[in-house]
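If your schedule permits, I should be very grateful for your opinion on a structural question. Please examine both parts with care and let me know of anything in them that strikes you as inconsistent. The record follows directly beneath this note:
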Amino acid sequence: MKYVYCMTPIQKTMRLTNLDISKILFLDIETVPEVYKFDDLDDTTADLYLKKNKYLQERDDLSNDEIYERAGVFAEFGKIVCISVGVVRTNALGEKTMNMKSFFGHDEAKLLEEFTDMLKTSYNMPKHSMCGHNAKEFDFPFLARRMLLNGIDIPNILDIAGKKPWEVNLLDTMELWKFGDYKHYTSIALLCHIFKVPTPKDDISGADVARVYYEDDDLERIAIYCEKDVIALIQLFLKFRNQSLVKEENIG
């Protein structure tokens, strides 16, 4: 018996050029270790952290403090301090516009609840999608894990358990650039460079976020940095569709 595979309407819609960009929520998150220094950990957490990173610590001959600098990338040992999102719309002149919003603060549960409320209100339908860079490996699972750890129900768009592949409306520009090459990692900075996407110069990088958070207590600076990453993400996505970029004066 011969089986014929037919693409569902949702799968057809998920083709990049067919997606309604106004229904895509572009996002980036910034994370920090739950405590700033390794010595601030309780004994059990410290022991579990070192066990999790034993191979890297021994391979690179790192001290406990040095290996702990990676803590912010693990949902078990880090926390989210900022979620920046952006949407693309069309104005009365037919020009693309970009609107930004950030959820940030010291209270992770509060910012996650605010973000979740927005998702449930505006991005909870089958035709809505979310997009990030390397987000399927980092941002999306980190968000879902931290929601569970804070006792927050995972919104439908992020709750992928049991869903068929074509029912998962999560997009990743790094995955799109791979074209099936699973060993290939490309940073958003490199992609923006080769696609000639303008990226504003920053006074901080991802490596500085924990210091700016714990030493400078400057969440607004982190939010500005995070929003710039979302702007770059949206412009790159437009390049992937061979479309014109959003003009700087139409970003707000």
Summary: The domain at 9-34+77-250 is CATH 3.30.420.10 (Nucleotidyltransferase; domain 5). DSSP finds ten helices and five strands in the chain. The longest strand covers residues 78-90.
